[in-house]
C-alpha cells in the first residue's frame, strides 16, 4: 500500500481507537471513515452493512486526500515503494507475482462494482486530480478501468435519456398516453440546481448503479462539462457559448487559430488527423463533399487536393469568412461557401436535396448535443447511401477515461442514427515537448492516441 494510503489507513484506525475510548454519552459517528477503510481493505461484508446505515454513502470523501471509496479500493492495489524495490532486488517467481496482482485486482473489482451499485460517482476527482478511472489506468488495472468506463457510459446514456424527457416536458403532453409514459419517473435537480444536469429516478424500482441513494445520477453533475487544461497545467471549464464565440475576435498566427481568450480553435498539429480523415472520406476523385467549420482551412485544403466535383463549406464566424475571402475561397471552382450557423444552413440544403459523398463536422464552442443533432437529424438527408461521415473526435480529450467513455457513447448514438463507425488509432506526439501549447490558454488535447471515426450507413 502506498505511503499516503498507509497513513490514511493508520489515521482511521486511530480514530476508531479514540472512539472506543470515549465515554458512552459522546456520540462519535465514524461511518465515513469506516466506509473508506472497508473499501481500502476490500471488505465487502462491512461495506454492505455500512452502506445500509442512514449515514452510509458510497460517495464519502477523505478530507486529507480527496479520495472516495472508489479511489481507495483501486489505490489499495498499488504497491508501496519498498515492496516494488524488493521485487526488483529479489529473485521472485514472475508468474506468482502476476497471480498475486490478479487476485488483488479481482478483490478490488468486486469492491468497485459494489460501490457503483450503491451510487458511487464514477468521475470524482481526488487531490491528485485523478478520477478512479485515471488511477486504475495509471496502475494498469485493466478490469477496474473497464468497470469505470462502463459506469461512465451508463451515466452519460441515462443523462441523455433525461434530456429527452426534459424536451417532452418542455413541449408539453396533455394526453393520457403521455401521462402514462412519464409515470414512474421524477425529475429532480442535483446540488448545483442546474436543470440540464437534473436526474431521473425510477420510482418503482430504481436501477442500481445508475441512480444514487440521493436520487441523482452518479457522475451526471460533471459529465456535460467541457474541460480543458490551461497554460499552468490546471483543468478549467470551457464556456461553450456559441454566441460569445461568434461575436469574439479571432487571431490567425500561422500554425494556430485563437479566440479572444487565447483558446485554441484550431492548430496545425491536427494536419495529420485531417489528412487521414480525408483519405477515408474521399477514396477517389470526383466526389461531392461538405465541411462544417472551416477554421484554418486545413481540411478544406486537403479536400481540394482530392479533385472533388463539388465542395460546400459552412462557416459562421465573420473573421474566418473574411480570411476565406482574402484567401480566394469564394472564387475557387466548385466551391460553395455558406455563411451562417449550420443550424440555419443545413435544413435548406436538405430541402434542396443536395447530396454529398463525404461529410465532415468540426465546429467550435458547441456541446456534444450539437454534434449528435447533426448526425441524428440531418446526415440521413445529406449523405449518399454509399457516403461517409467523419468528425473531429475530441470529446473528453482532457483525460483517457473520459475519452474512452465519450467515444463509446458517440458510437452508440451513431448506431442509433443508422450508422456503423470504424475507428483508426493515430499516435499524437508529445505536444508539450514540441511547444505546441505555448501562448495557448487552454490545451484541448492531452492524450497519446486519437481515435479517428469513419461512419457509414448500416447495411
UniProtKB/TrEMBL annotation:
Domain RMT2, first and last residues per copy: 236-459
Superkingdom to which the source organism belongs: Eukaryota
Protein's recorded name? Arginine N-methyltransferase 2
Explain the purpose of this protein: S-adenosyl-L-methionine-dependent protein-arginine N-methyltransferase that methylates the delta-nitrogen atom of arginine residues to form N5-methylarginine (type IV) in target proteins. Monomethylates ribosomal protein L12.
Q: Which GO MF terms are attached to this record? A: protein arginine N5-methyltransferase activity
Q: Which PROSITE patterns match?
A: SAM_RMT2
InterPro entries tied to this protein: Ankyrin_rpt-contain_sf, Arginine_N-MeTrfase_2, RMT2/GAMT_Mtase, RMT2_dom, SAM-dependent_MTases_sf
Query: Biological process GO terms, please?
Result: methylation
Tell me what organism the protein belongs to. Answer: Aureobasidium pullulans (Black yeast)
Q: What class of enzyme is it?
A: transferase
The enzyme's E.C. designation: 2.1.1.-
* A cellular component term, taken from the record's GO annotations: nucleus
Cell compartments where the protein resides: Cytoplasm; Nucleus
Q: Which family does it belong to?
A: Belongs to the class I-like SAM-binding methyltransferase superfamily. RMT2 methyltransferase family.
**What are the record keywords, sorted?**
Cytoplasm, Methyltransferase, Nucleus, S-adenosyl-L-methionine, Transferase
Q: How does it assemble?
A: Monomer.
